[in-house]
Amino acid sequence: xxxxxxxxxxxxxxxxxxxxxxxxxxxxxxxxxxxxxxxxxxxxxxxxxxxxxxxxxxxxxxxxxxxxxxxxxxxxxxxxxxxxxxxxxxxxxxxxxxxxxxxxxxxxxxxxxxxxxxxxxxxxxxxxxxxxxxxxxxxxxxxxxxxxxxxxxxxxxxxxxxxxxxxxxxxxxxxxxxxxxxxxxxxxxxxxxxxxxxxxxxxxxxxxxxxxxxx
Length: 215
Hints:
TIM Barrel; eight-stranded parallel sheet
């Protein structure tokens, strides 16, 4: 049964408390929180004050995805804000091993995200240190994009490597996840589905989460 992590980037920010209540009452496992700085990606989302408030509204896991430059400067702040999982981008980290250790030393689970153009093989020397690998199935920065089909090959390759090494590393997939393609993503080897528009733009978000969870 997959872990479902709805992305609040697609939620109604005017009624954020209601959206959190809906997720709490649903079968969603995690809250996926996308932080964008307008530098690493061409968009700006929300930051620490919003995450602090969301943390007070849920006991579910807060899965924070940093699409920012120099994430090491803010790791402690995101820990203080309530992040359970902190994911940084391979492409944003000159000293990735140090970034991973910093996150773990702060008591959070450490994730590493890969953009669509980045091969999974580049993580082979740090894979044993990572709790979660986030495969971007769209180019990061904006919600509502279409799933890049080549992602399925990346997921399969990564899952084979994780299983061969006997690791417990989770594979998370973010971007263009729908009810139509979710099964193929899980079958390829993913553990966690991030769904934004699919959940929050549906007529019945709780039912959509249930259907994703049931795959």
